[in-house]
Design a protein that fits this description.
4-stranded mixed β-sheet, 20% strand, FAS1 domain, 8 helices, 187 residues, 4-stranded antiparallel β-sheet
């Protein structure tokens, strides 16, 4: 399936460089144009992303997202972490920052990839799922299931895009309704 990955990467680059992108409008009138905030700041200001924002700071990954290199964060929303129950409490405890960092790296894609870019890649692949590498060295697979855009990790965990993407000067955060990692239950 390497050709789909190459096609997806090339398509994303063409889509990004070939046209302007539309910044999602918030409920309050925001100025038009690209955000000047870094991905860390944009996630910190986004509704429903306080858990992932705190996790980025706790693990030190926020420094990566404060840089100039572009990244896409598949950001589990607060409800996604809430659904983990005691496992979320365990993961978000300061002594488990390394485990949380490992989980989050599986949610990070290289480059500035929007939902529109992913949809274009799926259309270019004749509706078939497309794969992309993560910062953790694995792959995630994007597919359309009816109106839902889904993402599946190599371990079989699946999430749906659960809201509007958050754009920043150096990246995009795409909210998800689940954590892309089968997490152990606390003992």
């Amino acid at each position: 399936m390497r050709p789909l990955f190459v096609t997806f990467s090339a398509l994303a680059l063409v889509a990004i460089s070939g046209c302007g992108q539309e910044t999602p409008k918030s409920e309050t009138a925001a100025p038009a144009g690209p955000s000047t905030a870094t991905l860390t700041a944009a996630v910190g200001d986004a509704a429903g992303m306080s858990t992932v924002s705190a996790a980025l700071k706790g693990t030190g990954l926020n420094t990566v997202f404060d840089g100039t290199a572009p990244y896409t964060l598949l950001a589990p929303d607060d409800d996604a972490f809430g659904a983990l129950g005691e496992t979320a409490k365990m993961l978000t405890a300061p002594e488990n920052d390394a485990a949380m960092a490992a989980v989050l790296k599986g949610h990070v894609l290289p480059g500035y990839v929007t939902v529109a870019d992913i949809d274009a890649a799926i259309r270019n692949a004749a509706g078939k799922p497309v794969k992309m590498a993560t910062m953790a060295g694995g792959e995630v697979t994007f597919a359309r299931q009816g109106e839902d855009l889904t993402v599946t990790a190599a371990d079989g965990s699946t999430a749906k895009v659960s809201g509007k993407e958050v754009t920043a000067s150096n990246g995009v955060a795409i909210p998800l309704d689940a954590v892309l990692k089968k997490t152990p239950s606390p003992s």
